[in-house]
Design a protein that fits this description.
single chain; about 450 residues; alpha+beta; eight-stranded mixed β-sheet; six-stranded mixed β-sheet; 10 helices; 24 strands
Length: about 450
């Protein structure tokens, strides 16, 4: 049982060597996952994780220790280890906890653990059947079904005491098409900060048929051309490029180290004036949303770039100490085993006033990236390359034949300047974002955008 008396005692001990700040993070998490492949359930795992993390600050030095034993003895040992890693001059303080109250924006209608496993398997089998019935070229369907119910408590030496419940639901579908010598993949991975009602809102037949359609279309496609072209990147997961090539560089995790191309540029023009970019942790039931961050601060909507002008970074507590910028409720962590750091939540380019059809019509020769896949980024420079998982040629203002093997190669900061049109069809795509504080759910998003020129890597 976690009591305020025990927490106060542990925090007091964590401060005993002159630390400026001490914090406890407690977690009790239920995880459930099903892996379906080869027309059958391959894995069906259920587990419970619990533990506590203790963090102390000595100026701009951060020390972290954790334990999965919540006994007083173990917590005091962790506090002792953290406190003795450095030495400060701050005096001990009397801690008077005040409970933080906040609005719950993410109501859970059907707890995941209240739904029979058979209903979940039935949902998965509908996806599998729809994908396989889409065509003989579909040779494999791989489905991951994940649920997470997390309860957290946070307390610190400034008197904060708060707790919250979080619920995540996601299904990831990969359909594989093969002609005997080559394979192509179609994928969808919808998720939400929600209970089982999220799965009830999905159409399993659509997920199966859509992933199969992408795989079969790309299997029959010719190879993409190479060169510099105008490119239209469609909405939803197309926002992964902004997330990876620009978003991480706007976190104080990078800014405070000077390891960001955007460091020191608040108030400067960093993008075309048609670009407004936002990180929002408050979107109701958004995959990357939270009521409070993992430092106990209520989340908020943060305008990062407003009509091309850099307005803010994503700032956690230590990032605020190091940079002087106000916190934005962006401190996140995978679990109690990680100290929090500034991280993205639901990060997207906001709606513009253009239309997708207008973008296509404005291009004589280019590429339409309907769906984006994975890629890689050099964090310090923003240089990136991302695969186009579903692409088409644009000829004389019209979308023509599909092409495969296209890779978009560029630099995040430069690409922002070359975005000349932004549509009005904003959508989100779900993913898992990895960084120094582990892997966390994150929404990426955008309307369709037109980049006037970017390097396209292809085989033709």
């Amino acid at each position: 049982m976690i009591t305020k008396e025990l927490v106060a005692k542990v925090i007091d001990h964590a401060l005993s060597n002159g630390a400026d700040f001490a914090e406890l993070f407690f977690e009790d998490t239920y995880n459930s996952s099903i892996h379906f492949n080869d027309n059958k359930t391959k894995q069906n795992n259920v587990g419970n994780d619990f533990g506590a993390g203790i963090r102390v600050f000595y100026g701009q030095t951060e020390i972290y220790a954790y334990t999965n034993d919540l006994s007083e003895r173990s917590l005091m040992q962790a506090a002792d280890a953290a406190s003795k890693a450095a030495k400060g001059k701050s005096e001990k303080k009397v801690i008077d906890f005040t409970t933080l109250e906040f609005e719950n924006k993410h109501l859970i209608k059907i707890p995941n653990d209240s739904v029979d496993k058979k209903a979940k398997i039935n949902f998965i089998q509908k996806i599998n059947k729809a994908a396989r019935s889409a065509g003989d070229l579909i040779t494999q369907v791989d489905i991951g079904f994940t649920e997470k119910m997390q309860h957290i408590w946070i307390a610190n030496s400034e008197g904060l005491w708060t707790e919250d419940d979080r619920n995540y639901s996601r299904v990831y579908v990969r359909s594989i098409a093969s002609n005997g010598s080559e394979k192509q993949i179609g994928a969808e991975g919808p998720g939400g900060f929600a209970g089982y009602e999220f799965f009830n809102s999905l159409d399993p037949e659509y997920l199966g048929k859509e992933t199969a359609r992408i795989a079969m279309t790309m299997l029959k496609a010719k190879y993409a051309p190479s060169g510099k072209f105008p490119v239209v990147i469609d909405n939803g997961f197309g926002g992964v490029i902004f997330h990876e090539a620009c978003g991480h560089a706007l976190e104080t995790t990078a800014v405070a180290k000077g390891a960001s191309v955007f460091a020191g540029k608040i108030g400067e023009k960093v993008a075309n004036s048609v670009v407004t970019a936002i990180d929002d942790g408050t979107i109701p039931n958004g995959w990357g949303s939270e009521n409070i961050d993992d430092e106990g601060m209520p989340t908020q909507r943060t305008v990062l770039i407003d009509k091309g002008i850099l307005k803010s970074y994503m700032v956690d507590k230590m990032g605020s100490i190091k940079t002087g910028y106000a916190r934005t409720g962006s401190g996140r962590r995978q679990s109690y085993q990680f100290a929090p750091a500034s991280r993205m939540r639901n990060t997207f380019i906001d709606n513009g006033s253009d239309k997708l059809d207008e973008m296509i019509a404005s291009i004589e020769k280019g590429i339409y990236a309907k769906k984006m896949g994975g890629g890689s980024v050099m964090p310090g420079t923003g240089n990136f390359n991302f695969a186009v998982s579903e692409g088409y040629l644009i000829k004389n203002g019209e979308i023509k034949e599909p092409v495969r093997g296209a890779t978009l190669i560029g630099n995040g900061a430069n690409a922002l300047q070359k975005i000349s049109m932004v549509a009005d069809n904003l959508e989100m795509g779900q993913g898992m974002c990895g960084s120094v504080s582990g892997s966390v759910p994150a929404n990426v998003g955008q309307p369709a955008i037109k980049i006037d020129e970017i390097v396209v890597g292809g085989r033709k």
